Amino acid sequence: MNQYENMAVSFSNFFCLRRLLISSTSCSRAYLSGFKSNLSLDKLYPTSRLDITTIPKAPESKDGKFSGYIPMDRIQVNYVRSGGPGGQNVNCVSTKTEVRFHLASADWIPEPIRVKLAERVKNQISKEGYFIVKSERTRSQQLNLADTLDKLRNLIHSVAQSLVVPEVSEETLERQRRLRERAARERLKEKRAHSMTKQGRQSPTLDS
Amino acid sequence: MAGVGNRVLAGTDRALDLLRELPRLSLSNIRSNPKAFKRNKRGRGQHGGKKHGAGNKGSGQRQNFMRLGYETGNNPFYLRVPKEPYYKGHHIRREYPPISLMQLQTLIDTGRLDTSKPIDLTALCNTKLFQLSPFENQYGFQLTDEGLDNFKGRINIEVQYAPEQVIAAIEKNGGVITTAFYDAPSLIAMRDPMKFFASGTPIPKRQMPPENAVEYYTDPKNRGYLADPDLVALERFKLAQKYGYELPDLKKDPELLPMMLERKDPRQIFFGLNPGWLVNLKDKKIFEPEDEQLLEYYRS
User: Fold this and answer.
1) N or C: where does chain B have the smaller number of CB atoms within 10 Å of the terminal CB?
2) What are the structural domains, with CATH classification, of chain A?
3) What's the CA angle centered on B16, arms B14 and B19, to 5 degrees?
4) Average pLDDT over residues B262-284
5) Average pLDDT over residues A73-93
6) How far apart are alpha carbons A78 and A93 in whole angstroms?
7) In degrees rounded to 5, what are phi and psi of residue B285?
8) Distance (Å, rounded) from C-alpha B120 to C-alpha B272?
9) Are A146 and B244 inside 8 Å of each other by CB?
10) What burial letters (b/e) apply to B34-55, b meaning 16+ CB within 10 Å?
11) Quick one: average pLDDT of A110-131?
12) Does residue B159 contact residue B117 with C-beta atoms inside 8 Å?
């Protein structure tokens, strides 16, 4: 041990070296163990649980509001061949994505939104009652699936928005009424003034 | 002393007498042959004076020269080629040579990559199929989305850049992807570890990313190595919703879980080796520093 240390000292002035034997069978204490510098994640984020495996709970769609969560086990995804030009690739590769689900029994969409949606997309609902959304926008299956779900989510969201009646305060209603009446008054005033102008252009008669 | 009395001394005798009398040879009593060296002639007097090498009249003697690069009216060389804004800073821009998901799948299928261990830059360079040149501003590998639909491997991979759909493809199959930054000296060590260990240099500590890259590597959306893992978990869930797959529960596979969660410290370059360690391959030994200052340096 001392011999090696002397050798080490002779090589460099201040670098103190200690011999550490690697064994093929046993794991040395510092081997494979987490090295922790001052910039390790537990020091950067002391309040974090540092767990990437946690799966958060899906947000619920309650009180008639759509949360944006689409349960993948409640919808069917089909991949079919796309249309358009493309030779062998378009003939052989299934890149068109179709997402379908039974609209009436989709309880992951709140009831009022479901009803309005059924009315809005009645042309895209099959005879059995399945609502179908399709996309063949890109050359990739996965990107088309993302596009389909994006379409579906935006559709549901826009339907939800149209159902929301904004709460208007009494002052706003009062102000709107006053503005409407004022507009009507101004309009009649201008109309009368214009009428006088037109009358003034006529030649006077014995009566007037 | 030879020749006593009135006898005339011979030449050699006189020479020897001289030698005895004269002082020792030194720099002060020797001189070079004439024209052995040239004296530095400043522009003063006899040969450096008068016109001082400036000739007669004209702009030359009047020291009124045209500006450097001027070509007496025609478009000068340095102005002929216009400056283009598109290449500004090109020599500073970081490059990331691509590896497609299709290539990655092929490597996994043919057994060139071991999926039972985490895959990092060293593992990719060890396949000898990809070259990295840090001297040409290459800072690591990026994953491209070619072969996105058919990727089936379950891996723990660490690259330097990956677009969203690639992250989705890897996580969909139950894998883990991280994006990490390595500075040039670390890259040189990583791409050929054997050569680096043979050089006898202690393992350096990895530097932090440059200012314009910090935002990228601290963003959980990019699975940055400096991002909060809890936020990364949330982003995994959101991405699963965006790309339409059920997020696989990593905890369901307890044997593979430690491998999947294995990560390097931000200052670490090799798995299982700390910065500051000196690896001796020949004698199969590892040396680590004892000095407190050094330990503090490598830990900071």
Assistant:
1) N
2) 72-163 (3.30.160.20)
3) 110
4) 95
5) 91
6) 13
7) -130, 155
8) 13
9) yes
10) eeeeeeeeeeeeeeeeeeeeee
11) 94
12) no
Q: What is the complex's ipTM, to 2 decimals?
A: 0.74
DSSP string for residues in B235-269 = HHHHHHHHHT-PPP-GGG-TTTHHHHH----TT--
Pairing verdict, β B176-179 and B156-159: parallel
Which has more confidence, B100 or A33? Answer: B100
The partner residue sitting opposite B290, judged by closest CB among A16, A70, A95, is: A16
Q: Which two tokens stand for residue A34?
A: 């987490």
A77 near B CB under 8 A: yes
The string of DSSP letters for B42-78 reads -SSSTTT-TTTT--SSHHHHTT-PPPTT--TTS--HH
A165 and chain B in contact, CB less than 8 A: no
Please state the separation of Cα B73 from the chain's center in Å. Answer: 44
Q: Per residue, what are the HEC states of chain A?
A: CHHHHHHHHHHCCCCCEEEEECCCCCCCCCCCCCCCCCCCHHHHCCCCCCCCCCCCCCCCCCCCCCCCCCCHHHCEEEEECCCCCCHHHHHHCCCEEEEEEECCCCCCCCHHHHHHHHHHCHHHECCCCEEEEEECCCCCHHHHHHHHHHHHHHHHHHHHHHHCCCCCCHHHHHHHHHHHHHHHHHHHHHHHHHHHHHHHCCCCCCCC
Pair of tokens at residue A180: 């409407």
Who among A18, A32, A140 is closest to B288 (CB)? A18
Q: Compare CB distances from A140 to B148, B232, B288 and report the shortest one's residue.
A: B148
Sign for the pseudo-dihedral over CA of B267, B268, B273, B276: negative
* Residue position matching structure tokens 């919703």: B241
Distance to chain A for B125, nearest Cα, Å = 21
Q: Is B207 exposed, middle or buried (0-12, 13-18, 19+ CB in 10 A)?
A: middle
CA pair distance B17, B2, nearest whole angstrom? 10
Amino acid occupying residue A126: S
The amino acid present at A163, given as its one-letter code, is: L
Indicate the helix (H) or strand (E) that contains B9. none
Q: Which residues contact B119 (CB under 8 A, 6 or more apart)?
A: B113, B155, B156, B157, B158
pLDDT tens-digit map of B23-75: 988 999 999 999 999 887 677 777 778 888 888 998 889 999 999 999 999 99
